[in-house]
């Protein structure tokens, strides 16, 4: 049986149409920071790392968080789309993916107060300016922790500039040949910082009430949607909860998702946490799936992607069969086995998606 050939196939291997883009299956490479760029420019590492997933037959590949401005990088080694020089190197990656039948998106991001930090294997905490670090910005002047930089509270001009940076990055993503973009509003980065009352203590139109705290994300979404072709899908990644009392939570996420649907968002990618060092996360397999289930039930116009400790094909298939989510994003499982999808196909009883060049080595047991 060919994956997605009929409704009898496991849902993990059925196609899904997002706007005018049809994914061949429901497995998605989750955005994962690789800390391997210089000056934001993609290189051979990114070509090989992302290209392998096209050869493996994954339904949709996302790049790592790709910064819309230099000061928005998590680390000095992050990818970027803040300059036209970034277009051609990323286009080399998208060309390879497309040549081998794959689809690829990029995650547009700004780290806010969590910017200018070391890559995990290079150190901990803030990178000093003499080692390539930079001053950081945020909704307010509170740092994430004592080990990270103290941000400067953003002015109205800063907010307008960042919004424009997201839109311009989306235009560059289109020129680079991406099939979709995702706005990163999760994991304690800038747009999430504005959402949460724990990090947003502003007293202007961007702080205080729920309506004010979601304002920047809605403005960024509107700007990106206007810059991004309507026939191509738009994702938004959210942390459904801060896992801290008094912070951003599931009920606010559900309301926000309804607003995002009205702005033309095609799919939401629901993760959690990352905003506060005080978070208490009850980590276990599928611990974030209930967030997807809630949003999918409340906002039927949105496609919903779930992620987090979904380590087996059977578990992924069950979430789809139960109506908990439309897409399954995988991070660590695909780092551990880039050909995870082929083993999954075999275990679920379908013919694995295999590039012609690799057919001789297709899994048979």
UniProtKB/TrEMBL annotation:
Its cofactor is FMN. It holds the Pfam family Oxidored_FMN. Gene3D superfamilies: Aldolase class I (3.20.20.70). The keyword NADP applies. SUPFAM superfamilies: FMN-linked oxidoreductases (SSF51395). It comes from the Bacteria. Keywords: Flavoprotein, FMN, NADP, Oxidoreductase. Residues 12-347 form the NADH:flavin oxidoreductase/NADH oxidase N-terminal domain. Coiled coil: none annotated. This is NADPH dehydrogenase. It comes from Deinococcus caeni.
């Amino acid at each position: 049986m060919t994956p997605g050939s009929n409704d009898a196939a496991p849902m993990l291997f059925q196609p899904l149409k997002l706007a005018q883009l049809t994914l061949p299956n429901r497995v998605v490479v989750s955005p994962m920071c690789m800390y391997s760029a210089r000056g934001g420019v993609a290189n051979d590492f990114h070509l090989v790392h992302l290209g392998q997933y096209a050869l493996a037959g994954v339904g949709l590949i996302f790049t790592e968080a790709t910064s819309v401005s230099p000061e928005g990088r998590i680390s000095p080694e992050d990818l970027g789309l803040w300059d036209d020089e970034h277009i051609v190197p990323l286009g080399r990656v998208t060309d390879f993916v497309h040549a081998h039948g794959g689809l690829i998106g990029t995650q547009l991001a700004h780290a806010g107060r969590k910017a200018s930090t070391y890559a995990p294997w290079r150190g901990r905490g803030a990178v000093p300016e003499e080692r390539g670090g930079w001053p950081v910005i945020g909704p307010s002047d509170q740092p994430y922790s004592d080990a990270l930089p103290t941000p400067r509270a953003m002015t109205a001009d800063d907010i307008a500039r960042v919004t424009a940076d997201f839109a311009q990055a989306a235009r560059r993503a289109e020129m680079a040949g991406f099939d979709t973009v995702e706005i990163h509003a999760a994991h304690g980065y800038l747009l999430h910082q504005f959402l949460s009352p724990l990090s947003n203590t502003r007293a202007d139109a961007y702080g205080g009430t729920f309506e004010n705290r979601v304002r920047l994300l809605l403005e960024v979404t509107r700007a990106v949607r206007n810059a991004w072709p309507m026939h191509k899908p738009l994702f938004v990644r959210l942390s459904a909860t801060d896992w801290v009392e008094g912070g951003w939570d599931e009920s606010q996420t559900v309301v926000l998702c309804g607003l995002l649907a009205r702005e033309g968002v095609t799919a939401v990618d629901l993760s959690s946490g990352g905003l506060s060092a005080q978070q208490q996360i009850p980590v276990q397999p599928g611990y974030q799936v209930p967030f997807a289930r809630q949003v999918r039930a409340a906002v039927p116009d949105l496609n919903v992607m779930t992620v987090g400790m979904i380590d087996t094909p059977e578990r992924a298939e069950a979430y789809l069969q139960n109506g908990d989510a439309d897409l399954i994003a995988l991070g660590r499982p695909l780092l551990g086995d880039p050909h995870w999808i082929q083993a999954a196909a075999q275990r679920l009883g379908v013919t694995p998606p295999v590039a012609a060049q690799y057919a001789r080595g297709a899994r048979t047991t």
